[in-house]
Amino acid sequence: MELWFRGTMGLLFVGKGNTKREVAICSAYFPKNTGSPSRELSDLIRYCEGIGLPLLVGCDPNSHHTMWGDKEVQTRGRMLLEFLTLSGMQIANRGSVPTYFTPERQSVVSWRVSLEVSLSDHRHIFFELDESIQLFENGYRNPRATQWDLYLEDLKGRRIGIPSRYESEADVKVVLNRLNSAIVESFEAFKTKD
């Protein structure tokens, strides 16, 4: 494999029962004045899908969306969420405590800076993986091959019982989780893999 990124690497993941799993890991940064995501990341996602290699991306996308803990949704965030959805990537952020603050905004970051000496003017970013990580093996899905009429009919049925009025932020979160589950379950029922 030709490496497109300095930060791309393979990793043997040791899970329960001493099972081993190979996972590709990369980090990505999308500067505010550039397109999101980069062509290189898109190529890497396609490559990993093509050979059946799970991919974990640690990313600072400079994109704001409530799906990854922001309080607002911006156009760039909507575009990134659409890309993630169409490429079969999953959002794995944990927690909702803001770790980045400015007078105008705050955001949630799911990593920490290592105190280990790096022999650089930057510290290492630390991610912790354990055996509870879920590696999804979706394969590529062609949205054009989905049976959309059956999907929509099924989704209508699954929406029955989901409230349309909310009295608190907690109610909204419950409804969003139920609606998200309904969308995914309907899609899974009528998808076609290429």
UniProtKB/TrEMBL annotation:
Source organism superkingdom: Eukaryota
Xref: InterPro entries: Endo/exonu/phosph_ase_sf, Endo/exonuclease/phosphatase
Ranges where the Endonuclease/exonuclease/phosphatase domain occurs: 24-109
Membrane-crossing residue ranges in chain numbering: none
Single GO term (MF): catalytic activity
Gene3D superfamilies per UniProt: Endonuclease/exonuclease/phosphatase
Protein name per the record: Endonuclease/exonuclease/phosphatase domain-containing protein
UniProt source species: Aromia moschata
Lineage: Eukaryota, Metazoa, Ecdysozoa, Arthropoda, Hexapoda
